[in-house]
Structures are given as structure tokens and as C-alpha cells.
Write the C-alpha cells for this entry.
Amino acid sequence: MNPPAIKHELDIMFYVRFYQVLIGLLCLAAFFPPAHAQEEATPFYVVEVTAPSPEALHALVSMSLIVASVDKLTATLYLTEEEYRQVQAFGYTTRLVEVQPNPLFNEKASGYITYDELGSLLNGYADSYPHLCQVSSLGQSVKGRELWAIKITHNPDIPADKPVVKYVSTLHGDEPVGTMMCLDFAGELLAEYENDPYIQDLLDRTVVWLVPLANPDGYVLGMRVNGNGWDLNRSFPTYGLDYVDTWYDTGVLGDGGRQPEVAHLMRWHAAVPGALAANFHTGALVANYPYDNEPGIPSGVEAPSPDDDIFQYISLEYSSRNYPMYNSLAFPLGITNGSAWYSITGGMMDWNYRFLGCPEVTFELSGIKRPAPSYLPQLWMDNRDAMFAYVEAAHMGIRGLTRDRNSGAALWTKVSVADREQPVFSDPGFGNYHRLLLPGTYGLAFSTEGYITFFVDTVTVEEGSATRVDVTLSDGDLDDTGVVDAKDVQSVVDAVLGRSVSFDADVNGRGITATDIQAVINQIPVS
Ligand SMILES: [Zn+2]
């Protein structure tokens, strides 16, 4: 035997091995229902699985297994006993990290805040700082624990024209770092409001919502999944499967039949429209931005959203202030498109952005899932400035109020940017909208059911604070008699002819032209 023959034999061995693995994967896919479909909490094997090739890795992570992270050819999977046995049988290199629930795990001894302490701490804040925060529960977990939320802003009980920024942590119960970062953040905002002019200014113009512990049942047991054995960040509606249009367009939230924690988060996201959001995890160190999944694009391939420029910018706003994240060897500048890393379906991030129009990024804060508590002060140092800068990012772009032209009532309005597929929506209660955009010139369209679409064709966005564009929409009833009729049409005709009229006849925002006449005619009820 000469060396080339050995090489050839190795090549054949490699391909035989590779196809064995692929066939094995296909058998696995056919054999098992989706891992999250089980109703009873069963033990999960946390396993590092190394694939023989990038193709085999992408085949592995594209299956209905819980993939928690990917690093080169190694994926961290959460497997049932049966799945674990199969993966081993198919010849993957596996390393068992932990079995969950781990009988050795002790919430108190972990050194992190306990679920009970969390409730006491937040409710203590509500008592101490009533002018700065409100504490509520979004609802209860499978096992009846509260999903605590804290709203922090100056005068939290008074509706105001302020962007809402949301941090949600620990959808995965074994990833507790973000919980602590949220608490450090809340503590500083509340304690320093009176002393720190920057924090005072920030809370005077921003609403910060924190949900520090979205999966309390998993947290108490040191488990990724919730009390029913479901991975919550794989259990939100999936684009292309569960929905295609937005909530605004369909009016169907889709929370029925979801895991309780997911349903609570969905209702809260819908009821409290966010200008910007993030969710915290551990297991890697990177800012992961949409899309996590786009139908037709395989895992490992970039799936950019229409706001890719904005997502890269806001991800860098975070990563560039987090020194270890920014200097990542795995991810240039500490950021990645979700699908380019590995694709997931049922994540909160894509759903919040695509369905509700709220840009969201997933921040992975530590390669070690549950670092020793002695690292927490350093982790806070790494994330503090990043968390402030990310909140500040909600103030860039275009903002304003959308109101009824006659009554001044707030409107729930779809705000579309020309050449950008993804709309945002105003807050139905106050009418304010916040459209994140980088410096440039944009065209906007404002549409509300029953109203004439209003255009603002040239808006310049500059560095820093958002450009303000307040609009009033007309339902065609110019003279406010309660009905759109010939008199309203006549008013617009008069205006087009240059006669003086007592009403604002530019109903579509593009100057007074014949299109305004047509727009008002279109509003006349068909009898
Ligand atoms: Zn996670």
C-alpha cells in the first residue's frame, strides 16, 4: 500500500461514514415527533454532539431536536433519552454535559437570586419608587409561578409619548445571567434617577420594561424547558407556518393552545407595543439578529430582514460596548444573523419583529450557561453600558403621533416605509409610533382602517434624536358632520379650484389635487 491508496481508502471511509450519518438522520426525523411535542416533563440530556462534516451538522440542527447552540462542528442539544440513544447509535461523537432536571441542582445554593427573592425584590422596588416603576405579573407559569414584570419610567401611571424598550430574560431556565443583568439594570435606574442627570433624562423620555425571569419553573429546577417540558423559545408562532400577515392585518393573536408562559408574553407584547426589544440567553457570546428563520433558506445561510442595516447597527450598539462579545473569535464584531449561525423556528425574536413590528435582538451573554456567581460583577461591567446604549437606540429614526383629524383621538396606525417590507404600528392607546431608521431620506405611508392613507414622501433622518412627524388622518368627513357626503366632496373640489375652504382638504398628504377628491369619494358609504 502506498500513501495515495491509504488516502483513497480514507476518502471512501469518509463518504460511507457521511452517508451512514445522513441516513441515520433521516431515520431519526421520520421516527420522532418534534421534541417539544411532549406534554409531560421528561428528563433532558444536555449533550454536545460533534458532526463529521458541515453538511451533517446542518442536517442535524435542521431536525426537530432542541438545538441550544452551535460552535464549529459541535452542537449543544437537549435530547430525550430516546433521542440521545439514537444519536449515539448513529455514530456521532457525543459528550454528556448534564441531565436535567439535575438532582444535584439547588436553586438556593446556585448563588443566583431565587424565584422567591426575585418577587420580594421587585415588589420592594414598587413600594420604594412608586413614581418610577410599576410591578405586575404577566400571568402564571405551568406550576403557578408569576412571570414578574417591572415597568420603569418617570410617572409610570401616566400614558405618554415615549418609546417602549423591553428586555426579557431566561426563557431558558438554565440561563440565569440575563435575569441578574435585568436586576442590576433596574437597581441602577431606580437608585440613581435622582442623582444621575443622564438616567433622569432617559427615564423622562423612555419606558423600560423588564421581564427578568420568563421561565420560573425551569429556573427553579435548573432546566432549560418549562414545567411541561417545552422549550419556550421554540414555542412562539412560526412565520410561514402559523402566520404570514401581521397582527394588525389579521386581528388574530394566535395565543390559544400555546404554553402558558408564551401566551402571557404574546399578550403582553401585543398590549404594550414595543419600539425595541431584546431577549437574553447564555451558552454563547454574541448578538443574534433577525431572521432566525426564513422559509426556503437553510440553516447556516444568512436570512436578512428588510431592516438588516438597522439590526446590524443596533446589534453593534450592544456588542461594541461589551468587550468580550466584540472581540469574539467565532463571530466578527460579536454579531450574527440568526439563520447564518443556525436556524430556529418558534423563537420570540422573529415573531415580535414580523408579527408586531417590534425589532428584537437575541443577546447571548456568556459561553458558560451558568457561570459562578463570582463572575456576575464582571458580567455587569461587560453589559451595563451596552444595555443603556441599546435602550438609547430606540430614539433614532422617525417618531410622532397619529390622530383622527376631527376628534384628535389616538389611532392604531400601520406606518410603512417605502421600499421596506416590514411595517411598524402605533400604540392604539396614545397614537405614538417609533420607527427605527438610520440617517437618510425616507418616504412614509400611514394607514388605518376606515381612513384615507396619508403620505409623507420626504423625511430626513439625522444622527441622534428621531425626526418628528405627527400626522392626522381623515376619514373623509371634512366638515365633521358624522357622515361622508357630497358636501365633503364639494369642499375638496373647492380647494382644488383654489377657492377658500374652512377644512384641511389635503387628505392624503400630497398637496391638494384631484386625488384628494377621489379619496374622499371613495370614503362615501355604498348604499
Ligand atoms: Zn437560551
Q: What stands out?
A: The first strand starts at residue 44 and ends at 50. The pocket of zinc ion is lined by residues 172, 175, 233, 281, 283 (CB under 6 Å). The CA atoms of residues 165 and 401 lie 18 Å apart. The two ends are 92 Å apart (CA to CA).
